[in-house]
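Hi support team,

I submitted a single chain yesterday and got back a structure, but I'm not sure I'm reading the token output correctly. Could someone confirm the output below corresponds to the sequence I sent? I've pasted both exactly as they appear in my results page.

Thanks,
R.
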Amino acid sequence: MKITFQHAIESINAFLMMVTLSLFLAPSIAQADIYMQQDTSEQIVLTNLLIDSERTNQRVGYELLIENDIRSPSKSENTLAINNHSNESHGLSRQKVSEAVASASAQTSIDPALIHAVIRVESNYNTRAVSRRGAQGLMQLMPNTARRFNVTNPYDPAQNVLAGAQYLRELHTLFNGNMPLILAAYNAGPKAVSKNHMRIPPFMETRLYVPKVLDVYRRIRAERIY
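Hi R., thanks for writing in. Yes, this is the structure output for that exact sequence:
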């Protein structure tokens, strides 16, 4: 399956609405990797199918936009839980993250499952994560946001998570508890949502980000993985 880029936003917008409803009504959602591809005619497409360029003699390039790395946790293996190897390599234990989340949740009244979901998608629990745009730490705070919430060390779990939760609380108030808009604003900024007439902005990253966080949030909340 593949669709041209000019129809991608409309298709993902419709898909987003379907997923948002399904997250809370359906027991599970089938997932697949989504790639952005540019073929020899310079046409941009979205696809979940990889073409073998050696067999088809096609020169194509793929960029993975969203990976099917989130699966329902089992009793024996919880893939949404914090990765122990990753935590140990950064000197961080699951207990410290859980304590930071619990403390931030208590101070802001933001659901700890939502905080964990944002951390999972933003940084995969890597305290030293830095994005290409300069977002830092567990909840990928932009420098201006970190300063606004008095963060002196964005790589400190307690400071980073509290500031991220405070920002979510601010967005929760601004968008009247509308979860898709809250998450869209966390990703793209509240001005982008407001300028788009209180709708999710037509940015590919944001349109993919919102349902992914909602999916993780639903799974963590259902399993109470804190």
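A quick pointer for reading it: The two ends are 37 Å apart (CA to CA). Let us know if anything else looks off.

Best,
Support desk
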